[in-house]
Design brief:
Layout lengths: L6 H16 L6 E2 H8 L3 H17 L3 E5 L2 E2 L26 E2 L2 E5 L1
Antiparallel strand pairs: 1-5, 2-5, 3-4
The structure holds zinc ion.
The site of zinc ion has 8 residues, from loops.
Pfam families: PF0610-like_N (PF21476)
Organism: Stigmatella aurantiaca
Protein name: PF0610-like winged HTH N-terminal domain-containing protein
Length: 106
């Protein structure tokens, strides 16, 4: 768990993540791309995004989520609150799902 990560490291990672999100292209960056950019796991990216969303909102910015989409039927996961990739489509059960992408404005 990230609780074991020293505070300074957490702050640095989150700042790097925020910088990558602010500089993201219009299509956003997926957790995998952010993971590669910042050097943490995709799961950790999702955790940091939760905190980043709060801090961005607190300072008048926002985290923009471009929702995941089913590649088989086109179902868009608009109501999904979690930042991880969905396992399967609730509509057609396909597992080929285009992951959510993220951008930030501050
Ligand atoms: Zn589907």
């Amino acid at each position: 768990m990230s609780e074991q990560v020293p505070q300074a490291r957490t702050t640095t990672v989150r700042a790097a993540l925020e910088a990558a999100l602010v500089a993201a292209p219009e299509a956003g960056l997926t957790a995998r791309e952010l993971s590669a950019a910042v050097g943490i796991s995709e799961k950790d990216v999702a955790e940091h995004l939760v905190h980043l969303q709060k801090s961005l909102q607190a300072s008048g910015g926002r985290l923009e989520v471009l929702p995941a989409e089913c590649l088989a039927c086109g179902f868009v996961f608009r109501d999904r609150k979690r930042f991880t990739r969905p396992g399967a489509c609730p509509q057609c059960r396909a597992t080929r799902v285009d992951p959510p992408a993220f951008r930030a404005a501050r």
